[in-house]
Amino acid sequence: MSNQQEPGRKVNRRQFLKYAALTAGGAALAACAPATPAAPPTPVPTTPPQIVEVTKIVAGTPEKELVVITATPEPTKEAPPKGKQPIIYWSMFGLQEAAQAQMQVDRFNQETGEEAIFMSIGWGNVAQKAQVAIQGGNPPDLVSLWSQAFSWGPRGLLMPLEDYAAASKWNGEGWWKGVFESLHSDGHLWGTGHTLNMAAFHMNKDIVEKAGFSVDKPPTDIDTLDMWAEKLTTTDNSGNLTRLGFLPWQEAGLWEWGWAFGANFYDPKTDKVLCGTDAKLLEALTWIQSYAKKYDIDKIDRFRSGFTGNKMTVSDPWYVGKLATEIAGSWARSWIPRYAPNLKWAVSAFPSKPPVPPTSYTEIGAMFNIPWGAKNPDGAWKLALEFASKRCQIEFGNLVGDIPPLQAAAEDPSFINALPYNDVYIKMAKSGGTFYPRMPVLDIYQSEMDRATDAVVHGKTTPEQALKDMNDKVQKELDDFRAQTKT
Prior knowledge:
487 residues, alpha+beta, D-Maltodextrin-Binding Protein, domain 2, 2 domains, 4-stranded antiparallel beta sheet, 15% strand, disordered N terminus
């Protein structure tokens, strides 16, 4: 899906979430579906009045009499059987994504005879409202989530789906390496998916070539990236920034650069956080800090203050040349034609620190999860599988610019020929990509990663201390979670 989220899913999927649309009203929280209107009363069948002659016995003498026989109701018929249990789907999708999802739901209903009801709750609201609804005992049957699934599942808010998957023989066959496994944590399958968010190095072609570089020979390693950043950065006569050649924490962060340096964040076998002891992560954060020192964090902050609210609009700083290059997600391809149709641009793989090969962060754009307490989990699973189908993957991929997780869908002519630079993204997908660790406190880890990076670039702490403090806090949160959910 497009991270039209939102979703850090940092490569700024999370900022995309601010573009919430088509939010559902408060009634959606109180009930999974609109109240069924009362059926119109069934007309009572009648026969017309008749005048007949009958014989009565009066005092032992038979007498004839005319009697009016009034209309009489026929026996009441049993009410017709109710329709199938509906499948209530609460979605994160808004704008064009919502229209696409509605089309797919309508088609699913026509082909299966099911009654799936699509409800767009909005990017910033779906997780909060779904949690309240689940805990209140009145959840939807299907909901779109991201990393929340890996904490909600162990807390008993979501249904494990491996039994459904086994019965359906849905085992990730044909999916890109690591993607199907990324739907699992703590030994359980928590959802399906239909698009991949991937990050890549985006270049403003006019600026890059004017500086003497070629987008056909992009930087693949950190040293070359630093050289590009220096030559592409410009200042005015007072030394104030007028263009940044590149900035590591613009649309990316320590997760992505940690992977680019070969860092490890978490060991699932020992359930231990590693950020405080991983030398590669320390090297990555120290490198990020070097940009704050070299280009002066105060000048950077003043320059970037004008970026607020302009991402993915006609004033996007990369579109208008305030940034020569940046890290951006695959979903950006669906926005450039709308807001910067004349922009000349190019994409290449995420630069890395040798011997780590250039690759990309990879993440399911939207999961489809079944809450505990769902009234129609069987129907919800059928709809979740439909969203994961080849045709839905291609349709959503073409709409939002994201790569299908199913290799056959990504390499289908109807997808691969539809968008620019699909060859770059597919090559990165074949490499296996990198995935966020599947741990129940991932959201906390992400927040702490942002906080630590901000503190380091602003000189409030050292990289070593920031990583140690983060390690201690996230490990404590993880240990507390395990203690709370231990049975």
